[in-house]
Amino acid sequence: xxxxxxxxxxxxxxxxxxxxxxERLIETIKNHAGRTDYELIFLGDYVDRGPDSAxxxxxxxxxxxxxxxxxxxxxxxxxxxxxxxxxxxxxxxxWSTYGGLETLLSYGVQDIGLxxxxxxxxxTSKRFREHLPPAHLEFYKTLESFTIRGEYLFVxxxxxxxxxxxxxxxxxxxxxxxxxxxxxRQYDYMIVHGHTPQSEPSKDNRRISLDTGAYQTGVLTxxxxxxxxxxxxxxx
Length: 236
Fold this sequence. Notes:
alpha/beta, five-stranded mixed sheet
């Protein structure tokens, strides 16, 4: 049995540009929590694929609905790629095929198109930096790789079961899939993660998985984790 957080934690899965679902889920969480002391932990992938990545980040930074709530924001692989694009524009060729175009458009960067031309992506990266609000850039740069509450470890993708926590890097925290998902070993922590979409959230004796493919399904999911157990909440 894993020791629960000291107060209720609502962990929120991959948002991927769905500001509409984020707003609905936050309201649902507030109603669910009532007078309970709680905090929010976001598991990363705020951007790409959905229509309003810029709006999602603006909401997370400035929304009145979150002003009095303790929030922890974790980094996803999509935020890591966004930051890489600013310094290494040639990654735009691949980023554009899995959601980058939608993010650039949400920030007002027009006439992008798919291209493998490095000069094209260098120019696009420059325009993106010009359109990116300083508060958003600071948000992306200060995202955490993981966080721990009680014996629950919150991370975007997972961990390498063969390594100690101190040996893990962002390669594992942001990108890992099969080596983590298919392993059967018990961990020192219950791992709460997103990254790998599935039709329903799930929980077993090793991990809690919360990515329900919001940008396609319209279902954004959170887990309420407390001494009472784990309860799933969604926009369904």
